[in-house]
Amino acid sequence: MEYEKDLRISDMMKMQNILWEKNKNDWDPMEEKYARNSLLWMMEEVGEVIAIIKKKDDNAIMNNEDVRNKFVEEMCDVLMYYNDTLLRYNITADEISSAYIKKHDKNIKRNFKEEYKQI
Asked: Per the count of CB atoms within 10 A, which of 3, 19, 28, 94 is most buried?
């Protein structure tokens, strides 16, 4: 299957469904009660991203092709488990896109510096 280089959320979700279908006999069912497992796996992948940052540093991520490729690969793992979570909660690409735009519109109007002074 061929995909655009700039994937849409719906493309990523379709790809995750294809991967799950191939492995469904060995992986958790695509049900909401297993969404928390996807989040936990995602957090483990975030830990792997953090380990690269800590052990290799920002300069290596920016200038060492091998380190950068590994970093990007781990970020993909984060996205894959994120999409698994969306799928298990039956959150559609349109739903997450609309919420993202709404949150962006809210954040663009915020003054974070002033808000954090009041905490």
From this structure: 28
